[in-house]
Amino acid sequence: MSIEIKNINKSFKGKNKNLSVLDNINLTINDGELICLLGPSGCGKTTLLRLIAGLEQPTSGEIIANGEVVKGPSGDRAVIFQQYSLFPWLTVLQNVTFGLEMTKKGTKEENIAAAERYLTSVGLIDFKDSYPHELSGGMKQRVAIIRSLLNHSPILLMDEPFSAVDMQTRHKLQEQLIGVWKRFKNTIVFVTHDVDEAVYLADKIVILDKNPGRIARIVDVDIERPRKRDSMEFINLQESIVDELDMEK
């Protein structure tokens, strides 16, 4: 699904005056693209993601997803936050199939079979009967991602989902996300403040500056996958973006 962001402005009411968080954001995200929103804290990355999700409404402008103006949340747009939003009293398999059971999509047997295929694809099938407290942070995030995929959400909106795990786990999760994305062709909008993560993941990096948040530059990442962090292409692009962010500060 494609996303059109047109002339988006977002302000919040303060005590003495309105606080402008996003200013005149225009962006096209094509069907099946993986876009990273990158920038310093306070530049409006999460606010923009929430607007795309329909969790908040813009002050002016509009967002169109799959040809329809976004007016509220939709099953077509799944949001994955930093926190692991799993039900602690349900097993991994029950968490993954919960949405399907609620919406009556398919028989119970069909849903379980589909969930087991997805869990196998990310190395979690042996943990299908485990509870969230028995999983590592990275495993919990994989469960959250699979739950969104199994509910057939063509758009995944991810708000720094790997920031709470260690670097080794983060790199593994990034690799697995790329694998899932290649397989299921989702459109992904991924918020991060990590330049390395953005260069590793993205087709395009949308760099935001702040006060208020505006698009400073859109970077096409033309590095062949699988990407190697020690390649000169990767290092040079990473350094150029870091230099730009430092200049904006």
What does this protein structure show overall?
- This protein is an alpha/beta fold and 249 residues long.
- It has seven helices and ten strands.
- The chain has helices spanning 45-53, 92-103, 108-121, 137-150, 167-184, 195-201, 232-248; strands at 3-13, 18-29, 34-38, 60-65, 68-69, 77-80, 155-159, 187-192, 204-209, 214-220.
- The strands form two sheets. A six-stranded mixed β-sheet has the order 6-7-8-3-9-10, with helices on both faces. A four-stranded antiparallel β-sheet has the order 2-1-4-5, covered by helices on one side.
- Helix 6 (195-201) crosses helix 7 (232-248).
- It is globular and about 50 Å long.
How would you concisely characterize the structure shown here?
The chain has helices spanning 45-53, 92-103, 108-121, 137-150, 167-184, 195-201, 232-248; strands spanning 3-13, 18-29, 34-38, 60-65, 68-69, 77-80, 155-159, 187-192, 204-209, 214-220. The protein has 249 residues and is α/β, with parallel strands linked by helices. Strand 7 (155-159), helix 5 (167-184) and strand 8 (187-192) form a beta-alpha-beta unit.
